C-alpha cells in the first residue's frame, strides 16, 4: 500500500460547499474574489455556492453600501442522513479556528517569506568559528 503523503490529492474531504462555508466562517467580510482564491474555485462557482448556502439557510447576506457581509447560521443541520441531528456550528468553529491559528510567514526584504536560519551548524563543533561566532 502506498504512503498517504504520496497520493495525488485528487480529492478533498470537504466539498466546494464545505470549503466556502468554512472560509466565510473565518472571514465574514470576505469578497467573492477572496473566497474564490482561498478555496481554489472560480468566482462564478463561489457565487453559485453562496446562493445555495443562503437558500438552504446556512448563511445570510447583508449589503452595506457596496460591500456584502455574511452571517453563518451555526444552528443549521448537516444535510446528509449520516449526520442527522448534528449542527454545523461546532464543526465550523473547529475548522475556522484552525485556519486563524496558523502563523503568517514573515515577509523578507523583497516581499517573499524569509527562511529561518538554523540555530547552529551540526557539522561544526562548539569551538568552531562560523557565522555569528567569534573566537
Topology of this structure?
Blueprint lengths: L15 H11 L5 H8 L3 H13 L3 E6 L2 E6 L15 H13 L35
Antiparallel strand pairs: 1-2
Helix pairs in contact: 1-2, 1-3, 1-4, 2-3
The CATH C-level class name of the domain at 14-100: Mainly Alpha
Query: What class do helices, strands and sheet pairing give?
Result: alpha+beta
User: What fraction strand?
Assistant: 5-15%
Mean pLDDT across every amino acid position: 78
The fold-level CATH name of the domain at 14-100 is Arc Repressor Mutant, subunit A
Most strands sheet: 2 strands, antiparallel
CATH architectural name of the domain at 14-100: Orthogonal Bundle
Strand tally is 2
> How many angstroms does the end-to-end distance come to?
53 Å
Strand order of the largest sheet: 1-2
Helix percentage range: 25-40%
At the fourth level of CATH, the homologous superfamily of the domain at 14-100 is Winged helix-like DNA-binding domain superfamily/Winged helix DNA-binding domain
Counted by DSSP, the helix tally is: 4
Which stretches of 5+ consecutive residues score pLDDT under 50?
101-126
Broad shape: globular
The ordered string of helix (H) and strand (E) elements is HHHEEH
Rg, Å, rounded = 22 Å
Amino acid at each position: 500500500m502506498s504512503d498517504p503523503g504520496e497520493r495525488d490529492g485528487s480529492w478533498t474531504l470537504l466539498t466546494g460547499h464545505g470549503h466556502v462555508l468554512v472560509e466565510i466562517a473565518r472571514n465574514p467580510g470576505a469578497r467573492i474574489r477572496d473566497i474564490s482564491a482561498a478555496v481554489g474555485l472560480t468566482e462564478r462557482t463561489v457565487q453559485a455556492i453562496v446562493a445555495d448556502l443562503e437558500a438552504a439557510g446556512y448563511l445570510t447576506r447583508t449589503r452595506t453600501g457596496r460591500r456584502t457581509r455574511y452571517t453563518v447560521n451555526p444552528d443549521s443541520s448537516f444535510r446528509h442522513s449520516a449526520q442527522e441531528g448534528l449542527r454545523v456550528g461546532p464543526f465550523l468553529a473547529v475548522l475556522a479556528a484552525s485556519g486563524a491559528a496558523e502563523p503568517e510567514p514573515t515577509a523578507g526584504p523583497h516581499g517573499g517569506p524569509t527562511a529561518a536560519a538554523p540555530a547552529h551548524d551540526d557539522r561544526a563543533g562548539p569551538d568552531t568559528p562560523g557565522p555569528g561566532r567569534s573566537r
